[in-house]
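WARN no homologs supplied; continuing
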Amino acid sequence: MAQPMPILRADSRPRLLDLFSCAGGAAVGYARAGFAVDGCDIADRPHYPFPHHRGDALTYLAHLIATGEIRRYTFVHASPPCQHGCALTVGTNASQGWGRTHVDLVAPTRELLDDTGLPYVIEQPNGRAKIRKDLTLCGEMFGLGVIRHRNFELGGWRIERPAHVPHRGRVRGYRHGQYFDGPYVAAYGNGGGKPSIPELQAAMGIDWTDVREELTEAIPPSYTEHIGAAFLATAALGVAA
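OK structure emitted
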């Protein structure tokens, strides 16, 4: 006798849209917190571990808003390119006349996110990016092998700001021709005593990509697991922004 077909149930987890998703550092943290995640990035990201739309993130978000498809999401995370305002661009590179002009995507990203009516996060590194620093996270808060400060603007909700944890030492590598040892590795660039790929993976808590560029651009998943869990707890309590 034929066996009955299994009943396929829809994913009951709240769905999160991950814009400018890169290889999925943020996405994996949110998934660990309890979200189903969809990504969007303009580059091909074969290592991204969840459903993924390839295309311009702001164009895609505008399409989702116009069609009403944005309503299938509960939360949006956005990490717009940070070269315009990051510390390296406005500091060392600018002083040496290096680099090129970069477009600031934070303001148009925020405008569209506000149009969604959904709670959201905008992530940026330290520098001059014009976001509210509602939350700042550091690798030492999670026992990671990187410092990697990241700032988060929260739209439509709030989270308690954890105290910053003092660093245990220096970032390993060369500074002005002198080598320094320390408990952290440098999650950026090449040369100068930079970590190997396995060292960088271990320090960041990322094991699904071995592409250096993707690793150096990623957010450690521990950061967004913390943010996602806090949001879900807030939503469960029905706490308004």
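The first helix runs from residue 25 to 33.
OK
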